Amino acid sequence: MRQPPAARAGRHGPAAIRQVSTNLAWEGNRFPWNFDMRERLNVVDCGDLVYAFGDARDMSERLQAHAEKLLAAGKRMLSFGGDHFVTLPLLRAHAKHFGKMALVHFDAHTDTYANGCEFDHGTMFYTAPNEGLIDPNHSVQIGIRTEFDKDNGFTVLDAGQVNDRTAEDVIAQIKQIVGDMPVYLTFDIDCLDPAFAPGTGTPVIGGLTSDRAIKLVRGLKDLNIVGMDVVEVAPAYDQSEITALAAATLALEMLYIQAAKKGE
């Protein structure tokens, strides 16, 4: 499901991801999974969320209500945002259905900033623990390389650490932190280095390679992932659609980790 945000930079991100995803459709037994997830999952594009454009409160309330209906019907969601704020109403909906969750968060920023703004793409993970939606002690933020509050309870694996360690080592730590809690997985595309994802509103150099990110996402297949999103693609800043392609590929890998569990 796509949520077009009020923020200009990411407004057309979901459409760009959809468009470039056609480049990925040809591969049946996808490497290295060696199966076709379409044989295990019934995937439906629920279209765009309709709301009063520019009205963040209306968007938030409508998105939460729509997500609650899908979850109540037994569906799982992979959402495309523009602005990362969309994760907060999605967390509210998922918490009503699954209870308090662990957060696995890929980003250049922690988004735990208490700036007093109710609707802001840098405050969601300050608000979510305060509302009891996620448990910071079982949550991990990956790829961070900007200022953050070290007392917020989250485990932060900064980009330097993640780049210097093996993917297997990082994955093992994530699993240890999360445990058996239900997990919400959110991927801000600016977690990637701008060399791999220039088309985003707040790029920060020194990030993850696309190869490292894919390996980490694949390594999460044993977690109890109940919701997922990919956000912050800004096609106006993109080059040759490489950011949209990275986002579409990561989204596809998220579907594959769900499909892999179906085949067990």
Give the secondary structure arrangement, pairings included.
Layout: E1 2-3, H1 13-21, H2 56-72, E2 77-81, H3 87-98, E3 102-106, H4 124-130, E4 140-144, E5 155-158, H5 159-164, H6 167-178, E6 182-188, H7 210-218, E7 224-231, H8 242-262
Helix pairs in contact: 1-8, 2-3, 3-4, 7-8
Can you describe this structure?
The chain is α/β, with parallel strands linked by helices. It is 35% helix and 14% strand. Strands 1-2-7-6-3-4-5 form a seven-stranded parallel sheet, with helices on both faces. Strand 6 (182-188), helix 7 and strand 7 form a beta-alpha-beta unit. Helix 2 (56-72) runs parallel beside helix 3 (87-98) and helix 3 (87-98) packs parallel to helix 4. The longest helix is centred in the C-terminal third of the chain and has 21 residues, at 242-262. The two termini are 27 Å apart. Belongs to the arginase family. Agmatinase subfamily.
Task: List its traits.
alpha/beta; 35% helix; seven-stranded parallel sheet; Arginase, Chain A; Ureohydrolase_dom_sf; disordered N terminus; 264 residues
Which second-level CATH architecture applies?
3-Layer(aba) Sandwich
What is the fold-level CATH name, i.e. the topology?
A: Arginase, Chain A
> How many E-type strands?
7
The helix-strand sequence is EHHEHEHEEHHEHEH
Question: Which structural class matches the secondary elements?
Answer: alpha/beta
Question: Span from first to last CA?
Answer: 27 Å
Summarize the amount of helix as a percent range: 25-40%
Largest sheet composition: 7 strands, parallel
Number of domains: 1
User: Strand-residue fraction?
Assistant: 5-15%
Can you say what the CATH homologous superfamily is?
Ureohydrolase domain
CATH class: Alpha Beta
Question: In which order are the strands of the major sheet placed?
Answer: 1-2-7-6-3-4-5
Shape: globular
Radius of gyration: 17 Å
| Low-confidence spans | 1-7
Number of helices: 8
